[in-house]
Amino acid sequence: MFLRRLAALGLTLLLAAPLARAQLSIEITGAGAQRIPIALVAFAGEGALGQSLSAIVRADLERSGLFRGLEVPPLSPHPTETAKVNYAEWRSRLADALVLGSVAARPDGRFEVRFKLFDTVKQQDLSGVAYTLRKDQARATAHRIADFVYEKLIGEKGVFSTRIAYVVKRGNRYELQIADADGAGEETALASFEPIISPVWSPDGRRLAYVSFEAKRPVVYVHSLLDGKRTVAANFRGSNSAPAWSPDGAKLAVCLSREGGSQIFTVNPDGSALRRLTSSSAIDTEPRYSPDGQWIYFTSDRGGSPQIYRMAAAGGEPQRVTFEGSYNVSPRISPDGKMLAYITRNESKFQVGLLDLSNRQTQIITDSDRDESPSFSPNGRMILLATVTGGRGVLSAVSSDGRFKQRLSAAAGGDVREPAWGPFIE
Amino acid sequence: MRRSDVMRQTAIAAFSTAVLFLAACATTSDTPAPVTDGSKPPAEVKTDTVKPVTPGGGPSGSQLSALKDPKNILSQRSIFYDYDKFDVRDEYRALVEAHAKYLRENPSARMLIQGNTDERGSREYNVGLGQRRSDGVKRMMTLLGARDSQVESVSLGEEKPQVDGHSESAWSKNRRSDILYSGEY
Predict the structure, then answer these.
(1) Sign (positive/negative) of CA torsion B9, B11, B13, B15?
(2) Could you give the CA distance from residue A78 to residue A84 in angstroms, rounded to a whole number?
(3) How many Å apart are CA A154 and CA A65, to the nearest integer?
(4) Phi-psi group of A233: left, alpha or beta (phi > 0 → left; psi -120 to 50 → alpha; rest → beta)
(5) If you count residue pairs, one on A and one on B, with CB atoms under 8 Å apart, how many are there?
(6) Among B127, B149, B182, the residue to mutate for chain A (most A Cβ within 10 A)
(7) Are A311 and A319 in contact (CB under 8 A)?
(8) How far are the Cα atoms of A79, A102, A124, A297 from residue A42, in angstroms, in the given order?
(9) What's the CA dihedral at A61, A66, A71, A74 to 10 degrees?
(10) Which one of A91, A98, A265, A413 is least enclosed by Cβ atoms within 10 Å?
């Protein structure tokens, strides 16, 4: 693979990628990443789309921390995907990979984009795709191209076409927003003068469950993103919070106080079929299903301090999972089920810890100190989280190995918090 | 004023007797029997029909309700906590007792207790911690004779700080339970 052939570059990359319309601006920091040098030649005719596809693809790939886009001088003749590739020339430009493409207007007013990916080291044509699109689908198309390149060269699915949800607080106004994984194309799904917390994506990416305080107490809602309609999933006496979807999307695990204390229940997304899972005098909250649906991980202070436990998804005797430290909360299981990300308190710092569930090894992967709400990317490569820098709530993303970091802050001011990375969308 | 107070007391007494009687009959009804003497029970004095009074300032008007009268302990609605603590400190005992008495004497009164935490740590775990605070106050109220159905305890976690800030002086104001009566939420 490319990665193995590359020496660690030992560079610190710091780039502010200003994105058209983007409310979140992204700053990337990282050291020692092994990055594939890739040449993304401007697609012939892409100006007709009003934005540069190749530039969006390049920004996507660089944000993954695994690629380094090369500067390509104007070429004559301008090569497209149909050109015969002069591999030696691209090797002399230090490119390990090359993307060529073109954009053509169709008689129906739409456009056709064609591109091809080449491995310049193995001198191989790695194939490509042709897309038909409307002009307003240019960004989405660029993300699809980046996903294709990423998967071919890294060997796992890319997440550039996925979306993220988060809450922005400006003054006393709270907005639940949905954006592309690069922070562009944000839309407000809900605005409220009362807090909104804990958004979670349904496995099909069509709905969000979240907690809203608009009724002066926490109530769990399910919100359909297609039509903006929402239904109450849990509005029992007391507090209703911490929703988590079962992997099949049929159930929500929630934390309710209706029977006293804070205990974990399951409920159908329409509020029916309520069932209690835990029976303790402790706080049992923050349930999360394992991706195989077998387990529910949760936070409990039944042992005297908040720690992460797990139980069978239908309920049962909980087993303690975290042992180091006196404050381990907010469990999130990686998509492959092998890692547990959580928030751990280190003296007075709250940071993201990562526990390898097979060998029990733990590591702290952030160097910020007020981290909250970790969320795995659907390919498990990155973890999105909320933190505070300069007194302001920002989102941060860190690679699961801790080596590479991004920061996303709201360009228009305000605190950004409660991120949730959405699933792959077919 | 005084006269209506007397009438109210009478009504409360009649009311309480009725409730005790009903309780003795093991009724499951939460709705008290209507009072027939024509005077409204105090809990039906809608707080939003009462002229707001700035605590500590302004002359006290004749429409003051006990719940809003800054001179009445019932106008005190917040209980503050030590860090990571849930027990109601002794200094708030009289406050809790006064509210419990009010609930006891006004069976149609409904109370919402909102537990709150400071900003540190997980938002959802803090919802749990705030719930433990409000549950504790509710338990005291019911031990002191308020009925379970009169009191709902909920948590706002760290989401509704009284004071913005990132120091102990702000945090100590935010670790609290707030008492609200129906009409106030």
Answers:
(1) negative
(2) 12
(3) 12
(4) alpha
(5) 101
(6) B127
(7) yes
(8) 9, 8, 20, 47
(9) -50
(10) A413
CA dist A354 and A14 (Å) reads 25
- Say which residues have a Cβ less than 8 Å from residue A38's Cβ, sequence separation at least 6: A58, A61, A67, A68, A69, A70, A95, A96, A97, A98, A99, A149, A153
Asked if A102 is an interface residue toward chain B (Cβ–Cβ < 8 A), one would say no
Band the pLDDT of A73: cuts 50, 70, 90.
confident
Q: What is the pLDDT of residues B67-109, one digit of tens each?
A: 988 899 999 999 999 998 999 999 999 999 999 999 999 999 9
Contacts of A261 in chain B (CB under 8 A): 131-132, 135
Helix (H, G, I), strand (E, B) or coil at A146: helix
pLDDT for A367-419, tens place per residue? 999 999 999 999 999 999 999 988 889 999 999 988 888 887 766 678 999 99
Q: Which residues contact B44 (CB under 8 A, 6 or more apart)?
A: B108
SS3 track for chain B: CHHHHHHHHHHHHHHHHHHHHHHHCCCCCCCCCCCCCCCCCHHHCCHHHCCCCCCCCCCCCCCCCCCCCCCCHHHCCEEECCCCCCCCCHHHHHHHHHHHHHHHHCCCCCEEEEEECCCCCCHHHHHHHHHHHHHHHHHHHHHCCCCHHHEEEEEEECCCCCCCCCCHHHHHHHCEEEEEECCCC
Enclosing H/E stretch for A174: strand A173-180
Residue A305: exposure state from Cβ atoms within 10 A (0-12, 13-18, ≥19): middle
Contact list in B for residue A418 (CB cut-off 8 A) is: 123
- The length of chain B, given as a count of residues: 185
Percentage, residues of chain B above pLDDT 70: 65
Q: B154 and A218: CB-CB below 8 Å?
A: yes
**Residues B154, A345: C-beta atoms closer than 8 Å:** no
Positive or negative: CA dihedral A120, A126, A127, A128: negative
